[in-house]
Design goal:
The protein is of the alpha/beta class and 341 residues long. The chain has 2 domains: 63 residues, Phospho-2-dehydro-3-deoxyheptonate aldolase, domain 1 (Alpha-Beta Plaits, 2-Layer Sandwich), CATH 3.30.70.1140; 261 residues, Aldolase class I (TIM Barrel, Alpha-Beta Barrel). It binds phosphoenolpyruvate and manganese (II) ion.
């Protein structure tokens, strides 16, 4: 860490800070400038007491970290290699096949999910999405079919040989959801629910961690760090739009986050264009952008009849648009050198 002291301090005051830095386990190397002293504190910031609290001392102007706060998720942890997740016979990440996870926002009925599973399978999806437990803003809105939804998901996924991705909303449901799902989705509203994240990590199931509604990249990576720190390396990140001043779209899909995550981390990154813009008529263009940015896959909401959907109807694409989207995406996927099959 770097501790910058206030200008024109009495040498005795400088010595007090140097002594404290040493007491906290760092090797202090003071650099005495004409006006100010800067102390380079040598030591592993992830194992030592933080020096940031020294900012409360009257002698101290700033304290700067040198190391990043996350370790296991960082690109350096894998010596520059990207992680590949092996799930339901598929490989996700590191330039592998572009992954389509598709299905309705919510599981509504057996008929709805069976027809959707058939349509998304025909369009190359390898995972079926669908919420059985729904995080709804209003308590009066459809909350999901819960156990019955999980049963329907298992039935449809088995029939069409698809993996299952579904959200787990609460610690007490982790065991049950993990018994049905191939991937546990941690939703935007729970992206910093560390008790839930830890319990999900302990299940050993692969986890798709959405970005929270107003979460910084560092916070998102630190939330993922919890999962790896609890011994579960099977994590993918999902950008699903953040809150901004813009109201034209439901959220602002932060495509820059794809580049940032690839820069910082070895974890796969998935784009959810559906929550990302909240409008079915923009989903196709955002999918193209995600593929062109070399994202590792998409999580798309697809419904047999979006106008009658029990949740998020305005952003779900119908079967025809889904089929067109998959076709139109092919040149973008090929352009970044990923296999189509
Ligand atoms: C969803 O995928 O339907 C969902 C609720 O997502 P998010 O947590 O990103 O809002
Ligand atoms: Mn939704």
């Amino acid at each position: 860490m770097i501790v910058v002291l206030k200008p024109n301090l009495d040498p005795a005051e400088v010595e007090k800070v140097i002594a404290e830095v040493a007491k906290l386990g760092y090797e202090p190397r003071p650099i005495h400038g004409k006006v100010q002293t800067v102390i380079a504190a040598i030591g592993d910031e992830s194992t030592h007491h933080t020096l940031e609290t020294l900012a409360s001392w009257p002698q101290v102007e700033h304290v700067h970290r040198v190391q990043k706060r996350y370790k296991l998720v960082s690109r350096e942890a894998k010596k520059g290699h990207d992680s590949i997740l092996h799930i339901h016979g598929q490989k996700i990440g590191a330039g592998q096949k572009f992954c389509f996870m598709a299905g309705p926002c919510s599981v509504e009925s057996e008929e709805q999910l069976m027809t959707t599973a058939q349509a998304v399978k025909a369009g190359g999806a390898t995972f079926l999405r669908g919420g059985a437990y729904k995080p709804r803003t209003s308590p009066y809105e459809f909350q999901g079919l819960a156990k019955e939804g999980l049963r329907i998901l298992s039935l449809a996924a088995k029939e069409y040989d698809l993996g299952i991705i579904t959200e787990v909303l609460s610690e007490r449901d982790v065991e049950l959801v993990a018994a049905h799902a191939d991937i546990l989705q941690i939703g935007a509203r729970n992206a910093q629910n560390f008790a839930l994240i830890t319990e999900a990590a302990r299940s050993g199931k692969p986890i798709l961690l959405k970005r929270g509604l107003s979460m910084k990249i560092e916070e998102w990576l630190l939330a993922a760090e919890y999962i790896l720190a609890h011994g579960n390396p099977n994590v993918m990140l999902c950008e699903r739009g953040i809150r901004t001043f813009e109201t034209y779209t439901r959220n602002t899909l932060d495509l820059g986050a794809v580049a940032a995550i690839k820069h910082e981390s070895h974890l796969p990154i998935i784009i959810d264009p559906s929550q990302g813009c909240g409008r079915a008529d923009l989903v196709l263009e955002l999918c193209k952008a995600a593929a062109a940015l070399n994202a590792d896959g998409l999580l798309i909401e697809v419904h047999p009849n979006p106008a009658e959907a029990w949740s998020d109807g305005q952003q779900q694409v119908d079967f025809d648009l889904y089929a067109r989207l998959v076709e139109e995406l092919k040149p973008f996927v090929s352009a970044v050198g990923r296999p189509l099959e």
